[in-house]
What we know:
- Helices cover 47% and strands 14% of the residues.
- By secondary structure, the chain is α+β, with helices and mostly antiparallel strands.
- Among the domains are: 57-90, no CATH class; 113-229, Roll (SH3 type barrels).
- It comes from Rhodinocichla rosea.
Amino acid sequence: MPHINAAAALQISMLLFALPAQYFISQWYGTDSAERIQITERLIIASWSISTRSYLSLDAWAGRLKLWLSKTRTSLYVELLILHFRNWYYGEKKTKSGDNEAKLHSYLAESAHVHSPKPEYIKFRVGQVIIHRRFGYSGVIVGWDVKANTPEEQLQPRYPPVKQDLKDTPHYRILINKANGFGKSTAYVSEEEITVITGLEVVYHPDMETYFSGYDGSKYIMQPWLKKLYPHD
Length: 233
């Protein structure tokens, strides 16, 4: 219930008695003593009645309370709507951002799904050292796809009409040996572009330890997390 301090009570009292006072002054003159007393009594009774109905009545205060609660509920409802909209907007934005990031990492043999079973037509394995037949750089395989898995806008310039069939052949993600001085650090190539070589243990790349724990004489040994993704390699 709203709190009324002394100053507010005084202001209310002055307002309540302003109109009766005006009436009293206008009626005072031109009447005898008995009439003035009666008029004063009527004014006091009327003012008390108005005050009682306005500030001492439970119904009046109940009405004020209902009005205050309705405003409070409206304000709270608006705040809840705003909060709901903010949560929806930023949650939706975050979800879309997360979806885009997940989609980005599903390309170029970087998908986190388990590659099992492994089709027999995929010749090479994760951890094998390769050399690119045309560009001559060496590197190590860190992932594969059963066919090219990259945005279409990147495939079109890479595979002209005469080589469109290469899009449906196995593709491998390669960490390029930095010792070759090649400009790129990674590559995504079709199976026909590479050949496996042995006896080359040292492949210099800053991410080697992330993917591999050592070399067994024929290929690099996958870290446990990578082995889970390629259990048959």
